[in-house]
């Protein structure tokens, strides 16, 4: 009797335990894990896709399109529904010009329901594939970046990758603005893996990217690009760069680098060609740097524009012998003449009146050794050694632009100090951003300039640089009807072993602004390694004429007529 009772209780316990397990599983499946099982079931017949936001357009200052998005077709496959991968791969290979074995490998992947076959092909090419009516081969529209002017400002604009993400230039710098926020769409698929019309559901709506309006002027940019190309090729130079800026505001009107490339074919281009030389080329500026040295001495009241210095043809400083490249006799020059005629020995003597730390502090105030803060990725700082690392000859060599390195943009901004009455400003490329909801932001506004020298010092340097163009080394930059201000520079490049300078390789440059009384444009031209076999290669013979052409075009394009009395 007791044994029967025990058996009944045991059976009852097992029954209750089983019932509890069943109830628990029901609750687990229908309540606790209901959503996950629902999602799992949906994966059997639903596909989820990113609904890409439309990338914002990039315009120039006048509303001309520089970067736009177009609709292309992407071909993909669900390998589960491809019946004969070998045959499909062979047919697709002939149309898409892709490796047959690589396509077959994709079509036979056992662990995925989605593989790309061809991204962003033309509608015509996609139509040829669609006409084959292959099971498991599907199509979707994708946005593709297109640059209407191909090579225009290529390194500045930058480009996007196949997934519409900015990879360089402004496209990278303003990725968060331009890209927007992608949406999510789900749709049911049939037994062949095809999407069923009418079953599309938007889970998240996309938010399109903002449009960007640049400070660049398409016409000035095009002219700058073309003229730079002509000079680099004519002198068989290694490369070159030009920057055009509104000196009072910091708006970049043009930023050119050459060699350049077609933005629509960036995948064929070397990394070196993609570099924006305006902000990444670090070089010794040569005599263009004398303006900064003399400005520091003037500001401290240690020299005056009409003060004379007796200049021998050579001077020894510590272990360095510094000589004049075009003069072998003694001469007396005023400070103005030292700058106008680019006297190396004169620059050394002017620099001597400044203490080392005093000079270093001024160089920092002019923005050297620091990024300018322009809204571009990859800007270099240049090289400005700390005073504790100076040798006994460092100050002397810095006075004529050796032993210090700058970027073209740094050199240009240092000279806009003179155009701005002694104030250093920040350059910028984006004028405004217009968001889809109508909001407008202006990233370049509200940036305060920093006083570097007094208005009087800035005016004195401007007068001296005007003399350099009228009667000095920069005469080929003169433009009839406009008071042009500027300075030439010719710098030998450092030997590959870093122990000296190569007389056969140089960087030639010109930097200046106009008109002198009310500067509306400032330009720097830098040409790297022009060939002497093509003619005299000096800043005054190579870079100054290019500066003249671009400055004259810019001033006329800005509707600044020449003064008739100067014609």
UniProtKB/TrEMBL annotation:
Subcellular localization(s) per the UniProt record: Membrane
Penicillin-binding protein dimerisation domain ranges (all copies): 53-196
Keyword Glycoprotein among record annotations: no
Keyword Membrane: yes
One Gene Ontology biological process: cell wall organization
PANTHER family: PEPTIDOGLYCAN D,D-TRANSPEPTIDASE, PEPTIDOGLYCAN D,D-TRANSPEPTIDASE FTSI
Protein's recorded name: Stage V sporulation protein D (Sporulation-specific penicillin-binding protein)
Organism: Candidatus Hakubella thermalkaliphila
């Amino acid at each position: 009797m007791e044994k029967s009772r025990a058996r009944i209780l045991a059976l009852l316990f097992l029954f209750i335990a089983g019932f509890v397990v069943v109830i628990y599983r029901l609750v687990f499946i229908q309540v606790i894990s209901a959503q996950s099982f629902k999602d799992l079931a949906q994966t059997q017949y639903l596909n989820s896709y990113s609904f890409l936001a439309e990338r914002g357009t990039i315009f120039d200052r006048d509303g001309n399109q520089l970067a736009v998005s177009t609709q292309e077709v992407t071909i993909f496959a669900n390998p589960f529904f491809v019946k004969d991968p070998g045959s499909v791969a062979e047919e697709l290979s002939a149309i898409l010009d892709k490796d047959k074995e690589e396509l077959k490998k994709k079509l036979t992947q056992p662990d995925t329901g989605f593989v790309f076959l061809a991204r962003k092909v033309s509608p015509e090419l996609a139509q040829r594939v669609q006409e084959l009516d292959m099971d498991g081969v599907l199509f979707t529209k994708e946005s593709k970046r297109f640059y209407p002017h191909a090579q225009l400002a290529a390194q500045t604009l930058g480009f996007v990758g196949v997934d519409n993400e900015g990879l360089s230039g402004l496209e990278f710098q303003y990725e968060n603005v331009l890209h927007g926020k992608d949406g999510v769409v789900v749709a049911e698929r049939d037994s062949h893996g095809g999407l069923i019309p009418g079953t599309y559901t938007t889970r998240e709506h996309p938010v399109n990217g903002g449009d960007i309006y640049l400070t660049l002027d398409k016409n000035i940019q095009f002219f700058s690009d073309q003229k730079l190309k002509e000079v680099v090729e004519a002198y068989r130079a290694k490369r070159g760069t030009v920057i055009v800026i509104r000196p009072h505001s910091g708006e970049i009107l043009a930023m050119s680098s050459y060699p350049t490339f077609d933005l629509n074919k960036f995948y064929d281009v070397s990394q070196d060609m993609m570099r924006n030389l305006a902000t990444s080329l670090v070089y010794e500026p040569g005599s263009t740097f004398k303006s900064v040295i003399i400005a520091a001495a003037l500001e401290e009241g240690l020299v005056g524009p009409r003060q004379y210095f007796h200049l021998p043809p050579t001077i020894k400083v510590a272990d360095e012998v510094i000589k004049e490249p075009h003069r072998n006799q003694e001469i007396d020059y005023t400070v103005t003449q030292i700058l106008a005629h680019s006297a190396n020995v004169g620059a050394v003597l002017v620099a001597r009146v400044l203490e080392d730390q005093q000079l270093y502090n001024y160089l920092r105030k002019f923005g050297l050794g620091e990024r300018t803060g322009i809204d571009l990725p990859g800007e270099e700082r240049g090289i400005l050694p700390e005073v504790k690392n100076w040798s006994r000859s460092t100050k002397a060599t810095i006075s004529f632009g050796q032993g210090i390195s700058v970027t073209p943009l740094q050199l240009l901004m240092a000279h806009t100090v003179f155009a701005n009455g002694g104030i250093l400003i920040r350059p910028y490329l984006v004028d405004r951003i217009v968001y889809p909801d109508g909001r407008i932001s202006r990233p370049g506004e509200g940036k305060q300039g920093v006083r570097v020298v007094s208005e009087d010092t800035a005016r004195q340097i401007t007068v001296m640089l005007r003399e350099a163009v009228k009667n000095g080394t920069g005469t080929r930059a003169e433009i009839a009807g406009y008071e042009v201000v500027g300075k030439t520079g010719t710098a030998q490049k450092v030997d590959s072993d870093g122990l000296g300078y190569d007389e056969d390789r140089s960087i030639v440059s010109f930097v200046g602004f106009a008109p002198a009384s009310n500067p509306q444009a400032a330009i720097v031209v830098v040409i790297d390694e022009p060939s002497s076999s093509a003619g005299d290669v000096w800043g005054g013979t190579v870079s100054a004429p290019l500066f003249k052409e671009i400055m004259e075009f810019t001033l006329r394009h800005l509707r600044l007529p020449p003064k008739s009395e100067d014609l």
